[in-house]
Structure formats: C-alpha cells, structure tokens
Amino acid sequence: MHTLDELKKYARERYIPVMLDDTKQLLFDEVRQRLPRRILEIGTAIGYSGIVMLSASPEATLNTVELSERSAALARENFRERGMLDRVNIFIGDAREIVPQLTGSYDFIFMDGPKGQYETFFPYLTELLTVGGALVCDNVLYKGLVEHVPDDKRHKHITVARNMRAFLQDITADPRFDTVLHRVGDGVTVSTKKF
Ligand SMILES: C[S@@+](CC[C@H](N)C(=O)[O-])C[C@H]1O[C@@H](n2cnc3c(N)ncnc32)[C@H](O)[C@@H]1O
Questions:
Q1: Ligand 1 centre and the CA of 121: distance in Å?
Q2: Per-residue model confidence as pLDDT tens digits over 79-104
Q3: Residues with Cβ < 8 Å from 15, sequence gap 6 or more?
C-alpha cells in the first residue's frame, strides 16, 4: 500500500494538484474534531484529501465529484488499497452539472474543485449542508491574488481571482455562517452553518 506521502509524491510528479501539508493538517483536525457522518467533496483528484477525511472520521462516508476519469480511476484504486472503497461514491463528471442535482444532506463539505466556480456552487452547497455542519473551502486566497488583484487585465488568473474574491466576501458576510479564514496553504475558510 502506498503511504500518504507516496501518494502526494506520485500526484505532484504528474502535475496532479493535491492539497498542501498545512491544509492537510487543518482538514484532518477539523474532521477529527467534528466527526461528520456524511462528507461531500468537490475535486477528488487521486483521493488524497478523501483519504485524509475518511481516516479522521472512521464512521463517515464520502461522496466526491471529479471531472477527470483518469484521476477518478486512480482515486478508486487508492481508496480500495486502504479498504475504504465501500465508504466512497465517486461521481465522475463536471461539478457544474452534478452539484445542482445533488440531494440529501451532508454534515461536512470540502470544496476543492474548479476555482472559478465557488460562487456558483455556494447556494447549492448551503442547501445540502446541515445546521451545525461545516463547509471548508481551499484556495480562497488564490496565490495571493485575491487580496492583491493585478491591474493587468490580461493576467491569466485574473478572472478566477475576482470570482474567488467575490466568494470570499459573500461567505464571510453571510449571516447563516460563522466563517474563519485560515492563512495556511493557499488560504482555507472553515464556515459553520448556524441556521
Ligand atoms: C486541487 S485538485 C483536488 C485535490 C484534492 N482535493 C486533494 O487535495 O487531494 C482539483 C480537482 O478538481 C477537478 N476539477 C476541475 N474542474 C472540475 C469540474 N468542473 N468538475 C469536477 N471536478 C473538477 C480537477 O480535475 C482536480 O482533480
């Protein structure tokens, strides 16, 4: 069985993004403290973050959405190797189509998929999240560009940075959530749904 460090190395060598070490620790701690039963994740990649969450909450199941069939296949193998596959459903496809169709409820949601779409997914995820549950969003400071959006309109990351800034402002101001911004990794919000 590959260790988590080996999985991370494997992914990075193939330019498959997986979360940074500080983010991994924060995610593990949040899940361990809250012990959710039903977790939703947007952006499976090769299952690294999913394995972290399922390890932290041994009773939890995970529904996770991934666009890339190749990454999803690798994730399935990695979950299988750890005996976790029966706790996981991988939805393969575009989260922009899948998220609006999701039903049921989740007590922990990890958003780590397409960076320009957080604002679009936010109302759906809010609906799916139970009161007391947590919505954790990675990359909310987006390479530092969210707080310092470049003037150059041709900058390739500018649209994502603007979308992310709008999302960060909205979720921070939303009275339904208590949101804490953690300046670890690429910026992570942890938002607890109050009502
Ligand atoms: C940052 S990676 C996820 C990393 C993973 N959560 C981890 O830390 O191990 C983002 C993932 O979102 C996927 N993705 C990008 N656009 C997507 C979309 N529109 N729908 C579903 N998944 C998408 C990418 O293929 C990629 O695997």
A1: 14
A2: 999 999 999 999 999 999 999 999 99
A3: none
pTM, rounded to two decimals: 0.96
Nearest C-alpha neighbor of 132 from the set 37, 13, 14, 65:
37
Structural domain spans, the chain: 4-193
Q: Give the orientation angle of helix 48-56 with respect to helix 69-81, to 10 degrees.
A: 40
Question: How far does the centroid of ligand 1 lie from the alpha carbon of residue 177, in Å?
Answer: 24
Q: Which of 39, 51, 67, 88 to mutate to test the pocket of ligand 1 (most atoms within 8 A of CB)?
A: 67
Counting from 1 in the atom list of ligand 1, the atom nearest the Cα of 138 is 1
- Which of 3.40.190.170, 3.40.50.150, 1.10.8.470, 3.30.200.100 is the CATH number of 4-193? 3.40.50.150
pLDDT digits (tens, 9 = 90+) for 34-67: 999 999 999 999 999 999 999 999 999 999 999 9
For ligand 1, what atom is nearest to the CA of residue 48?
9
